[in-house]
Design brief:
about 10% strand; three-stranded mixed beta sheet; four-stranded antiparallel beta sheet
Length: about 450
């Protein structure tokens, strides 16, 4: 598959406007029968996902991507997750699915303007609309971004797709999409808890007021960080459906890598990203649970912009202590400590030697980069391979993983996927120890 084919798909996605369907029945029918048929078959099958996707021609995959982009919401998020955490898929499939990290069909400008006028004070709304570019610069599963100028400075204005909150609620009422996206991230988790956790987490992405506060908090934490940039939130130009931040220039990951950046710079950025996503959890009980490549911009001077803070979760001190303990126990390969760590996190512990060995293997895969001393690269196979997870689904089901851990799986495996692509060579074990000590 050529770059021109992917670019052509991106152009088709950005060249069409749609209204988001909010009908429970309609979304379920399309999700089950059209948009996700290929992906669900790959996930549910005992066959290798690569074989399943290899049998499809690019036109069939492109059709699926188009349907996902039109549905938005959970359907589109499933496509995004498949594109960057499942290394078993053929490169052609991942490249097409990766289009969803940047674009879906867009919301008409008239609806964008209406949302701004309804959410902001009249003077602020008209000031913003006076310079707002009609064509968006990005369109994602929940909202789209336009460029504007305020007081001589460029700003990014993110507007929620009209009806997207109702569309997601419809997806969760149908249950199937919520269960599928949870199983993609945590096969074997408690279904009821998992759906509830996924619902709370993904619906929070529709609340731009909450995202603004999360962005402010991360900006405070990383204000003096030499590598991480968090765009400033302009609260007076923001509301429940409108989020305005400082504009930040940068390249997407693939364009950044095309410039062949020096290894030392890749390593420094890899450390910074790991510290942002994992360190924020250990040190502040706060983490951004959506580390996919579309949320990152690389500035070219060794820094990286983290753009999206919609799916941000927090944990209490007891859970954080449990996560610290489990990380250390797996690294030490201490059976008693591993069992204690699982129990502390609410996971049903393995009872037999065979069950423990199976659980041990899964956890060592989860913490795999930390098991090696000295600098190393995270290999592509460290990414969360869907077909392998589903081969172990019966074992995982017996563990009854609590739903609250849903986004922890997402953050680890999503981060590993980014770091593997980045090619950063870091002593991950020493970095984890540094963050745990902090």
């Amino acid at each position: 598959m050529s770059d021109d084919q992917v670019k052509g798909l991106l152009e088709r996605l950005r060249g069409r406007t749609v209204e988001v369907s909010t009908s429970t029945f309609g979304r379920l029918r399309r999700t089950a029968g059209i948009a996700l048929k290929t992906g669900v078959r790959a996930l549910r099958s005992d066959s290798d996902a690569e074989d399943l996707f290899a049998k499809l021609d690019p036109a069939a995959i492109e059709s699926m991507v188009t349907s996902l982009g039109e549905l938005k919401g959970l359907a589109m998020k499933m496509g995004q997750i498949l594109s960057y955490v499942d290394d078993s898929l053929p490169a052609e499939s991942r490249a097409l699915l990766g289009s969803l990290q940047r674009w879906s069909f867009t919301t008409p400008f008239e609806a964008v303007a209406a949302a701004i006028r309804e959410d902001l004070a009249e003077a602020r709304a008209e000031e913003l609309l006076a310079t707002l570019e009609r064509e968006p610069v990005a369109s994602a599963s929940v909202g789209q971004v336009h460029r504007a100028r305020i007081d001589g400075r460029d700003v990014a204005v993110k507007i929620r797709h009209p009806g997207i909150d109702e569309a997601m609620k419809a997806d969760f009422r149908a249950a199937l999409p919520g269960a599928l996206i949870g199983r993609m991230i945590v096969p074997g988790a408690d279904i009821g808890e998992m759906i509830a956790e996924a619902k709370e987490g993904f619906l929070s992405e529709c609340d731009y007021g909450r995202e603004a506060e999360s962005g402010r908090r991360f900006a405070e934490i990383f204000a003096d960080d030499p590598r991480i940039i968090i765009p400033e939130v302009l609260f007076e130009y923001s509301g429940p459906r409108v989020l305005t931040t400082a504009w930040c220039d940068g390249q997407v990951l693939e364009d950044y890598l095309a410039g062949d950046p020096p290894q030392a710079e890749r390593d420094a950025i890899g450390r910074a990203l790991y510290s942002f996503y994992v360190g924020s959890l250990y040190r502040f009980g706060l983490f951004n649970a959506d580390p996919h490549p579309g949320n990152l911009l690389f500035t070219g001077d060794g820094r990286v912009v983290v753009l999206d803070h919609g799916c941000v979760r927090s944990f209490d001190a007891a859970t954080i202590a449990g996560l610290r303990g489990l990380s250390l126990a797996v690294q030490a390969d201490d059976r008693e400590a591993i069992v204690a760590g699982l129990v502390g996190l609410g996971v049903k512990p393995p009872k037999s030697d065979a069950a423990f060995e199976a659980t041990r293997g899964m956890l060592r895969g989860f913490y795999e980069p930390l098991l090696r001393a000295g600098p190393s690269r995270i290999e592509a196979r460290t990414r969360f391979v869907m077909s392998e997870a589903f081969a172990a689904k019966k074992r995982l089901m017996r563990m009854k993983i609590p739903g609250k851990l849903l986004f922890l799986f997402r953050i680890r495996f999503g981060l590993y996927a980014v770091l593997a692509t980045l090619g950063a060579e870091v002593d991950w074990r020493a970095l984890e120890a540094e963050l745990l000590a902090g």
